[in-house]
Design a protein that fits this description.
Elements (H helix, E strand, L loop, with lengths): L20 H15 L11 H8 L3 H14 L2 E4 L3 E4 L25 E2 L12 H14 L14 H15 L8 E4 L2 H14 L4 E5 L4 H9 L6 E2 L1 E2 L2 E2 L10 E6 L13 H14 L2 E5 L23 E6 L11 E4 L2 H12 L7 H12 L2 H27 L5 E2 L6 E5 L5 H10 L2 E2 L17 E5 L5 H14 L2
Helix pairs in contact: 1-3, 2-3, 4-10, 5-10, 6-7, 6-9, 11-13
């Protein structure tokens, strides 16, 4: 069985069986260094950690490391761990007279891009148990065509969970299951346009794919400024053509600020006075570390706020499971729009998630991941304090990412330097609304996606490229 070494984001094609296991690992590591997938200076995981990741004996990994140290590919020093040697990788020949292009970029060895959880930590065993129980109890009709609103089993447990964990005013009849946040927002954009809404405001920092979905539905997307207290919702009153606003109140993406209480109230007041709608993206509200959880804005007015949640950050985006808690007046229109589409979450997956939540496995998984992500965040803060003390870090009280402030004019060069070091980075400017002419320089560092064994190497690579 071929195993991909997810720790380094590189497919090393290791065969973890048979007498040639040590040789196969040594060859895979050597090839990764030669090709540039493991860059000079990269710190490798300990032999114990890598052995656990690959399902090998620790001695096998230690022997492979020793072979490569002897050959000069790796270095090993007490207190510094095992690292890729500071040497130029051998050039690969592609034929007589072949020339190398200086513009060819290496495949990223480490990714600190925001927006993804640690996929290696998906609770496979517990999910499989939940799937078995759910399928054993599933009625025959569950394998037929789905109700556009979603399985009642999932909507029932979601209503209880969201009320308990996020302060959402939910009832099964208000919930519509969708295939992730993008699917839900696409449906809402079409419904809003059909209702006569012409403009839906978006925060001045956010994801362009969300703006594009609303624009594709025929809506203009003016920007609502964001500062250290979140979106400046008091300015909605002056935006005369706006009938809806898309917001991330619990943890503004990407700046990380929670929406201030006064601004939460101002947003709801605007929606009531203008018969507007607030689309609340609660993308990572379950992960908080240094502060009390910020409850969902929807609890302040369930008839003026649409709550959108997803399993993408808490479990995995590949599940394609999301949900909307809607004002009663919107349920029928959203189901009608959804009913004509084929993009739906499979009923067995919905039933499995329902069982996973009802059994308490979901709560246990979230608690476990909250602790793991907090440790990574703390390691990030500590590494910056030691090796890049002039870089200010913010937005770290919750979520799966942090913002690193950079000196003016350095963002692009740092991102490019990271690419040449095999490190995938995202600049803050990448998330700036087109109508915002300029803004601060920074990096949006996602600390959720690297595997545990790759985290130290990713931090080392990051610190090397910071100014």
């Amino acid at each position: 069985m071929t195993d991909s070494w997810a720790a380094f984001g590189a497919d090393l094609h290791i065969e973890p069986v048979g007498p040639g296991l040590r040789s196969g690992l040594t060859t895979a590591l050597r090839d990764a260094v030669r090709s540039g997938r493991l860059t000079p200076g990269t710190r490798l995981p300990s032999s114990r950690t890598l052995a656990v990741d690959l399902g090998m004996a620790r001695n096998t990994v230690a022997d492979a490391y020793a072979d490569l140290v002897a050959e000069g590919w790796l270095t090993a020093r007490q207190g510094s761990g095992t690292r890729v040697a500071q040497r130029a990788p051998a050039a690969r020949r592609s034929g007589p007279g072949a020339s190398r292009s200086p513009n060819v970029r290496r495949r990223p060895v480490h990714s600190l891009l925001p927006g993804s959880p640690d996929l290696a930590s998906f609770p496979r065993s517990e999910w499989l148990k939940a799937a078995r129980r759910a399928l054993a109890a599933a009625p025959h009709e569950a394998f037929g065509y789905s109700d556009p609103q979603g399985r009642i089993e999932l909507r029932t447990v979601l209503a209880e969970y969201l009320a308990r964990a996020r302060g959402v005013y939910a009832a099964p009849e208000r919930i519509v299951v969708c295939a992730g946040f993008v699917h839900g927002l696409s449906l809402l954009g079409k419904v809003l346009r059909r209702r006569g809404v012409r403009e839906a405001a978006v925060e001045s920092y956010g994801l362009d794919i969300h703006r594009d979905l609303l624009t594709g539905a025929g809506l203009r997307t003016p920007c609502l400024p964001v500062d250290g207290l979140g979106a400046r919702t008091g300015e909605l009153a002056a935006m005369r053509g706006v009938g809806a606003v898309l917001m991330t109140p619990a943890h503004q993406f990407p700046t990380g600020a929670p929406l201030h209480a006064d601004r939460r109230a101002a947003a709801v007041d605007w929606a009531r006075s203008r018969s507007g709608l607030i689309l609340e993206d609660d993308y990572d509200g379950e992960f908080r570390y240094d502060r009390q959880s910020v409850g969902a804005l929807q609890g302040l007015d369930p008839e003026r706020v649409v709550y959108l949640g997803t399993a993408s950050k808490s479990l995995a985006p590949g599940l394609r499971l999301g949900w909307m808690v809607l004002p009663r007046s919107l349920v029928g229109e959203v189901c009608e729009e959804k009913g004509g589409a084929e993009w739906m979450s499979a009923s067995p997956d919905q039933l499995t998630l329902a069982e996973f939540i009802a059994s308490g496995a979901y709560d246990r998984h979230v608690r476990s991941m909250r602790l793991r992500y907090r440790r990574r965040r703390d390691a990030l803060v500590a590494a910056l304090a030691e090796r890049a003390p002039d870089v200010r870090v913010s937005g770290i009280a919750a979520g799966l990412h942090a913002v690193l402030e950079l000196p003016a004019g350095t963002e692009r060069s740092v991102v490019q330097a990271g690419a040449w070091q095999g490190l995938a980075l995202e600049g803050l400017g990448r998330f700036r609304h087109p109508d915002v002419e300029s803004g601060r320089d920074g990096l949006v560092i996602g600390y959720g996606s690297p595997a545990d064994s790759a985290w130290t190497g990713a931090l080392d690579a990051l610190c090397r490229v910071l100014p």
